[in-house]
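asparagine synthase (glutamine-hydrolyzing)
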Amino acid sequence: MCGFAGFAEAGGNIDRESCETRLRKMGEAIVHRGPDAGGVWLNDALSVGLSHRRLSILDLSPLGAQPMVSASGRFVIAFNGEIYNFQALGEELLADGAHFRGHSDTEVMLAAFEAWGVEAALGRFAGMFAFALFDQQEQRLYLARDRMGEKPLYYGWQGGTLVFGSELRALQQHPQWQGGINRGALPLLVRHNLIPAPHTIYSGIFKLLPASFVAVDLARLEPGQLPEPSRYWRLEDQFAESDDWTVEAAADHLEALLTRVIGEQMVSDVPLGAFLSGGVDSSTVVALMQRQASTPVKTFSIGFNEEGFNEAEHAAAVAGHLGTDHTELYVTEQNARDQVPRLPQIYD
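Structure:
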């Protein structure tokens, strides 16, 4: 995974050196999300900046570094996640005259925004992602999140600054951070054992809903004012009734879909693997991975010495049947206890 953060200042008149320091500090707070590289970008005229931490998966060269500027210079993006259908989208864009310097999905995203517009491009991205995108021509900041909400994105006002990022700890590094507790979120936490989006534990800070984006007009930036999120995709629109399906036809169709989607998710410039529990879901995924792989897929399982909780034996049986390169890690009570002091940090 990667991570990003940033801010937009109302009123302008910023000091470039101090703002770049703030951006680097925000990025350093989430270095665990992207230990391979980091970068910052700042438009001091419009008082907006982006910080990015990179975990290199696609295009390991500097051409895949972020924040990344589009070919025309219009768009700048800090992006966390992966666009699984980027190769197909890239081929379509190439046919329409686009040019790419590298082979990252980030560069394809930027070309898609330039060719189709932000909302239309969002509707065509299949993947897990969150991003901050700045349109320098329209002076508009876009914050967007994937269809299922796999990747997080927090945003909101603190004083005269709009802050945003992958984790709350990044937002806390900005000197305008106030951190007032959102008392309305406490009953939600007690009731659900979590704080559901769009709420967070902090006043004025929100979690963007899945399949949504916000577009902030920086030319009319007013402290405390946020546009309503817009939906670019709806799950309920993806279903259609048909009398033509048989069980066999539906099963064949599902297998074809899973094979294509898993194949897209196996595209990587670094080694990849899969968690395997021995259950139906993970066994199906690994079987379809192994069918498309030229070498044994690397699989990993967690085991327990307590028989009632141990699934490692089932996973090992599936791994042996499929011929994967399998690794087991047995977790002890002491391993679990050792993690308890880290829980406040892990959960922000």
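The radius of gyration is 22 Å.
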